[in-house]
């Protein structure tokens, strides 16, 4: 009984870790740039397809495809930000939602046309498959790898946002664009790089999530609500908030499906409603 509970807890943490990697990019763009980008899942899907193509067509190792997925999605995000997204920074949130939803439909149609409607397989290296012994328990090797990646990503983002000159420029540009420009900060470039960072993180999460979440053209729609829940409950514009929210969501989602499968996703949605009532501004708010 205890072993099953610990197993469910571990799988929930791993699942939440994956949701965090994808959702933290949305937290960056939504909270720091005040832009509602519902096409965020499309960047995650792109990262997944990049990994699949590099694995199947070029024969690259799985670990080598992950930084390339991050880089390619970041470059695509930078291009779209420069050509399309920046035109809507001062538009209403409704316009932003409609635009990003339309972009998501286009991405889904494009993925269906080029890759077909079926699930894409991924062949993990042998050392990431099977079980490993951890404190006397057998846990999934890939789940353990996901948790390790989240630790590294969280630490890197914390240092980038809080301890670097670029992070200070981001915070300054978000809080007061006029003052930031007066201090000599290129606000336009900062926003472009910030959007590219969020898109790249989505692509990295999409590549990591192929084995857990699956990959097909409907990916952006299937998990859009999950990404939004993580950001809304955790608090947009923060790193710790979405991390805590993603872990809560992952643990309760896995536990609900394991212990009360007949209730489906009701457990997690009910929990999210309660958390939003208790913390309407999110678990953690970005300090101006």
From TrEMBL:
Pfam families in alphabetical order = BPD_transp_2 (PF02653)
GO CC terms of this entry:
plasma membrane
List locations, semicolon-separated: Cell membrane
What residue intervals traverse the membrane? Answer: 6-28, 35-56, 62-85, 97-116, 141-161, 225-252, 264-283
The membrane topology term of the UniProt record is: Multi-pass membrane protein
Kindly indicate whether the keyword Membrane belongs to this entry.
Answer: yes
Its keywords, alphabetically, are: Amino-acid transport, Cell membrane, Membrane, Transmembrane, Transmembrane helix, Transport
GO terms of molecular function: transmembrane transporter activity
Query: What biological-process terms (Gene Ontology) are attached?
Result: amino acid transport
- Family assignment from sequence similarity: Belongs to the binding-protein-dependent transport system permease family. LivHM subfamily.
Q: What is this protein called?
A: Branched-chain amino acid ABC transporter permease
Organism for this UniProt entry: Janthinobacterium lividum
